[in-house]
Amino acid sequence: MQKDLTLIIITFAAVALSAVVDRKWTAKGIVNGLQMLFNLLPQFLLLVIFVSVFLTLVPPDDLVNFLGQSLTSVGFIAAAFIGSVALIPGPIAYPLVGMLYQRGVPVTVLAVFITTLTMVGIFTFPIEKEYLGLRIAILRNVLSFFGALLIGFVVGGLL
């Protein structure tokens, strides 16, 4: 809570300083930012709905059973694909992964799961395609997916 308040104060101070330096430029920046926010809002709300439905339909106990309580290639690949599709925000993902860890899911599987969960976005692909272009959106997701697999292998090798 304290960190949020600090960030809000810093943001308002930066905007105030910017307004002192160049009032027109600051106003233009605020208007552009609000326009971007309102353009992204419908897509973001749709994403939140998809994530909520996923978390409702797939309870954590089912994830534990599916990912396995021992390190298998099936659990490893399943974690990569589930994480790629789910795209759960960090504040929800980290406690979920902590709960999965406490229930015996291997750290290697969880490393792949959390990495794909936060970096690969099947649901966000249309937004990325619109703002980054098709080629960059595909490249970013493919590299993130293989990067997540690499992270899983490295974590597995270290443990």
Written description of the protein model:
This protein has 159 residues and is mainly alpha-helical. Helices cover 86% and strands 0% of the residues. The chain has eight helices and no strands. The chain has helices spanning 2-21, 23-57, 60-67, 73-86, 90-102, 107-119, 125-132, 134-158. Helix 4 runs parallel beside helix 6 (107-119) and helix 6 runs antiparallel to helix 8. The longest helix is centred in the N-terminal third of the chain and has 35 residues, at 23-57. The chain is elongated, with a radius of gyration of 20 Å.
> How many β-strand runs?
0
Structural class, by secondary structure, is: mainly alpha
Low-confidence stretches: none
Strand content: under 5%
Percent of residues in helices: over 70%
- What about the largest sheet? none
Question: What is the H-and-E element order?
Answer: HHHHHHHH
Topology diagram in text:
Blueprint: H1 2-21, H2 23-57, H3 60-67, H4 73-86, H5 90-102, H6 107-119, H7 125-132, H8 134-158
Helix pairs in contact: 1-2, 4-6, 5-6, 6-8, 7-8
